[in-house]
Amino acid sequence: MATLSFERVDKTVTVLAPDTSVTVQELVDAIADYADEPAYLDLDMMATWEGKADLGGGEFTGITLTMINDWRIQFEARGGPTYESCQVSGGNLVAVNSYGNNPIKPTAYTQVQIRQSQAPTLLVGVDNPVTVGLIQTDVVDAVALSADAVAEIVAGIFSKVIAAPTGAPALGTADFEELIAWLAMRHQLAKRTFNKTTGVETQRNPGDTGDVATGTHSDDGTTTTLDKLT
Question: Where are the beta strands (DSSP E) in the chain?
Fold first, then answer.
């Protein structure tokens, strides 16, 4: 059973480390117990829940926990640098709040998956249908994206060392990195050679250690034409 902690100021229910999973039933039981404490009487209601209707034959409807009044669930932050996978399962966890109706509060070096049990659709808040298969991408929005994640994305893009190209990129199939490398090399005005006998112009790499593209010249005495470098 997961160990939970309640933070009244931050309005969070925290799954303490080293636990990496919690069920909706565990959350409901803990919230119900906490709500019975006298110290909770001055606080706004943090959640509602429904389900467990008897269908007969020992079967019951699933349980749905809705976090309200900006209360959210979080897993205790980890020290990194690797991320720890965490999950909420055994029911449906949704929210009506000012965080894009996201019931999860992001924390450092945790990745949280909500394993919703209801299908095919889930209503998060009001007029916001979310397909269960896309729950992780639809529910998490820009507000919920942690600063650590943003910093890692930026660092991954702008700190990447791009190797010098070995040939001209093929439009339509070249990736973004290849195109950037080619443009950067052209901007550096790398060495170009022209063979007057064969009419071939060669584009050298910035270190002048190899050819990356060639093109041919033609001259009819009036106009000199240079084909594209390939």
Answer: 4-7, 12-15, 21-23, 47-50, 54-56, 59-60, 64-67, 72-75, 84-95, 110-116, 121-123, 129-131, 192-195, 200-204, 211-219, 224-226
